[in-house]
Amino acid sequence: MTGVTLTSAGLDPRRRRILFRCWHRGIREMDLVFGQFAETELARLSEAELDEFETIMAEEDNDLVRWIMGTWPVPERFQTPMFARLAAYKPDFDKPLRTPE
């Protein structure tokens, strides 16, 4: 079961791949943060922003959750507007989950 509500039909292959990866992180909290962020922001991210987003996504989930939740300081390399946008995004943890159509 995923929380995907955005259809990937209108997305280019890169954005489809990113959307899938956002909802299949490995830690449910990160699925919700990345997945819901991607559903809201993915279509309007520039190519440079997509590059940075994918760099962030390549990090270990356990580190990401600590940085995003503020329990560990964010490394200097991620003190960027994109990381700040992601960390500021507050997913709806009560949003009902459904499978993609």
Automatic annotation (TrEMBL):
Top-level taxon of origin: Bacteria
Alphabetically ordered keywords of this record: Chaperone
UniProt cross-references to Gene3D superfamilies, sorted A to Z: Flavinator of succinate dehydrogenase
Protein's name according to its UniProt entry: FAD assembly factor SdhE
A Pfam family reported for this protein in Swiss-Prot or TrEMBL: Sdh5
Signal peptide stretch: none
Family: Belongs to the SdhE FAD assembly factor family.
PANTHER family hit by this protein: PROTEIN EMI5 HOMOLOG, MITOCHONDRIAL (PTHR12469), SUCCINATE DEHYDROGENASE ASSEMBLY FACTOR 2, MITOCHONDRIAL (PTHR12469:SF2)
Keyword Chaperone applies: yes
Listed SUPFAM superfamilies: YgfY-like
GO biological process annotation, one example: tricarboxylic acid cycle
